[in-house]
Amino acid sequence: MDFGSDVLWVSTFEGGTFDEWTGVMGGGADAFPGPSNTIAVSTAYAHHGHYAAELTIVAGPDGSQANAGLNRKGGLPVEAYYSAWYDLPRTISVGTFWILFKFRLRTDAADPNTENEFYDLELVNAPDGSLTLQLFDHRSGLNVPLVSPPVVVPVSEWFQIEAFYRNAQDDSGRLTIWLNDQQVVDVNGQPMAPTPWVEWDAVNVGENLTPSTAVVAIDDCAISLSRVGLKGIIAE
Amino acid sequence: MLLLAASGTAAAQSARHEPGLLIGGSSECPTPGLVWDRLVAIVPRDVLLDRLQQPGGAVAPVQIVDLGTSFRVIAGARNRDFVEEARDCAKRAQFAAVFIAVVAGANTTANAPPFQSAPANTGITAPAVISAPAPTPRARLELGAVASAALGAGDAAAAPGLAFRTALGRRRFLPVAAVTVLAPLERTAGVVDIRQWQALADVSVRSPSHAIGRSRFYGELGATVELLVARPVDLVDARTEVSYAVGPRAAAGWMLETKGRLAPFLLIAAAWFPRPPDRFALPAGDLGRAPAWNIGATAGVSWGLL
User: Fold this and answer.
1) Residue A187, SS3 per DSSP
2) Can you tell me the ipTM of this complex?
3) What is the pTM of this model?
């Protein structure tokens, strides 16, 4: 008995293109500044199937930000789960920042010029050099405390980041993030963005990384009205 | 041996004294022969031959008819049904013999038409069962209210419903067919809330009932087909799905015997579905199978059709 679906949108890259992102209103796939920063649909990585997105940046010590990302802007529900699978081929020493997952906002939902940063889920190095998560709130300019002890982000194996984002303008706002089904943060009971407009980005954005070339593979992205989780199936 | 009762007559006349010529019928429980044996034990042969024998009659004047959970004794113009569900043939023969003796005793004059006068005192008292014979219905139509619970897949859920049942025939084992329709209910399939409708159709065999006072107890064994119609309550892309499952069924019933055609009954039934339908939804994936067990209680009225 197939009861249907709570999945609103998926990207498995199995078409060999970024059409799942670029073919929807407000969707995009881009890398800048070029040409050292690139995006490609590659067979070198795949969580399921044959293809995944390969986002490559060169973020040297010159203080410039390198960007490669996939984004969905606007037309998203006020409340939803956002899921993506990542593979980091190698560990990186993070100088300034290295971002994988973002939510952005508009102060005026109808005005693109009012877009701004909101939450960045970043990778940082633990004292032993391993990678852990950090959530930066651009509104307060502070990192949001995460679970302790920090959860180690695996290298050279696929992991899932999933977020529940209720972009409410009252105290019912909520942002919960899981890494491989383990909750790492729950920002609850406070207003989120000033408008219901939502932008979600799955990205490889960095500055001052060592080595400077950082590759992030992304696959099986979904926006759903219910939890995807590690065992979730996003497409039949 | 019976020919001795008419000793001194010719062989052709002796043949008329065979029990088969006095007590006939196709009954296997009791057999006419067994009834005759019990009869001659309580009434002298000569009296029986004198009072039962119909000169020139081609058919035995006493007929025994086996009706399954009851039997009928036809003695000339009189007949009587006896309820005896245990099919104790010896007991049945005794009842029949007593009834025949009473009827035969009514013929106090040799020339009177058989079985039309008041019974003579034979010194034998008919068993109590004879005093309140209840004819066995040709069929039973049963309508009842159902409380049904689905078990075996997450939380248990119960739903009310209606059941229509029919039992056919008068034989020892009765075929029974039933349809049960349950009210919709909301339950959880994995992490998905669904609204589910359920209907059951079953075919069973009902065992001979055992009587304790006016209560009659019986069992049923058979098979059930379960029809499931389910629709998720809160999925953004919801689909209505129809599926079915088949499995064995067992039930135990109680019925209160009445003098009328209507009798209240209570039935407890359990059905097991070895391969209940798989359930699936995105992104949860496998939601597990539908419940494998269905337990139901039906209370209602049984209408006996003669």
Assistant:
1) strand
2) 0.87
3) 0.70
